[in-house]
C-alpha cells in the first residue's frame, strides 16, 4: 500500500471514527442528563407527597453512615427547610444519582471528544506528510509514525495525570502501554486474517 493510500484511508477512517466517538459521547451525556432530570422529578414528587417518610429514610441513611442520631436529625431538619437541597441530597444519598447539571451541554462533550480524537489520532499520519519531501521509503515513514504515536500517547498520559493529580511517569507509561498493546493486537489480527485468506502483498 502506497503512502497516498495510507493517508487517504487513514484520514477517512479517522474522521469516521471521530464522528462515531463524538456522537456516542453526545448520546451518552444527553441520555444521562435526561435520566437524571426524570429521576429528579420523581424524587421531587416523593418529597412533596411523602415528606415525613423521606425525612425518616434520610435520617436512617445518615445513621448508617456513622452519624450520631441527634446530629442526623438536626441535619435532615435543616435540609427539610430547603426542598431543592432535600431533593438533591436524597438523589445522591439514597439513589446514588447526581442531580442534573443545567449548565452541562451534551453537544459540547461530543465536540470535545471529536476534536480530541482527530488531534491525537492524526499523529501517525503526520509522519507520512512531513517525510514526503525527504524520502519515499515507506519503512522510514512507518517508523516515524510509530514515534509520533508514542509522543502523542505520552502527551495524552501527561494531560491525564495533570487533570487527575496522579503520577506523570506512571500515567504516561500506562497510556503508551495501552496504545502499544492495542496496536500489536490490531496488527496480529490483520496479519492472521491476511494469511488465513491467502492474500499476498503486491
TrEMBL record:
GO molecular function, one term: iron ion transmembrane transporter activity
Topology class, membrane: Multi-pass membrane protein
Catalytic activity, as annotated: Fe(2+)(in) = Fe(2+)(out)
Keyword tags: Ion transport, Iron, Iron transport, Membrane, Transmembrane, Transmembrane helix, Transport, Vacuole
Pfam families reported in the protein's UniProt record: VIT1 (PF01988)
GO cellular component: vacuolar membrane
Residues that span the membrane, as ranges: 111-134, 140-158, 170-193
Domain of life: Eukaryota
Compartment(s) of residence: Vacuole membrane
Gene Ontology BP annotations: intracellular manganese ion homeostasis
Entry keyword Membrane: yes
Main location: membrane
PANTHER family: FE(2+)/MN(2+) TRANSPORTER PCL1 (PTHR31851)
Protein role: Vacuolar Fe(2+) uptake transporter.
Family as reported in the entry's similarity comment: Belongs to the CCC1 family.
Name of protein: Vacuolar iron transporter
UniProt organism field: Chenopodium quinoa
UniProt lineage: Eukaryota, Viridiplantae, Streptophyta, Embryophyta, Tracheophyta
Amino acid at each position: 500500500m502506497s503512502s497516498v493510500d495510507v493517508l487517504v484511508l487513514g484520514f477517512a477512517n479517522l474522521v469516521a471514527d471521530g464522528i462515531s466517538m463524538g456522537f456516542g459521547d453526545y448520546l451518552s451525556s444527553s441520555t444521562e442528563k435526561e435520566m437524571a432530570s426524570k429521576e429528579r422529578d420523581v424524587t421531587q414528587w416523593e418529597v412533596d407527597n411523602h415528606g415525613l417518610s423521606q425525612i425518616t429514610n434520610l435520617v436512617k441513611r445518615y445513621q448508617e453512615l456513622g452519624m450520631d442520631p441527634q446530629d442526623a436529625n438536626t441535619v435532615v431538619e435543616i435540609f427539610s427547610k430547603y426542598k431543592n437541597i432535600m431533593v438533591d441530597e436524597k438523589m445522591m444519598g439514597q439513589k446514588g444519582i447526581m442531580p442534573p447539571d443545567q449548565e452541562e451541554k451534551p453537544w459540547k462533550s461530543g465536540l470535545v471528544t471529536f476534536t480530541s480524537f482527530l488531534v491525537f489520532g492524526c499523529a501517525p499520519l503526520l509522519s507520512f506528510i512531513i517525510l514526503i519531501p525527504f524520502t519515499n521509503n515507506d519503512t522510514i515513514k512507518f517508523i516515524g509514525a510509530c514515534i509520533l504515536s508514542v509522543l502523542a500517547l505520552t502527551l495524552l498520559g501527561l494531560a491525564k495525570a495533570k487533570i487527575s493529580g496522579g503520577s506523570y511517569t506512571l500515567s504516561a507509561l500506562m497510556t503508551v502501554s495501552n496504545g502499544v498493546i492495542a496496536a500489536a493486537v490490531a496488527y496480529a489480527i490483520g496479519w492472521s486474517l491476511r494469511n488465513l485468506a491467502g492474500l499476498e502483498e503486491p
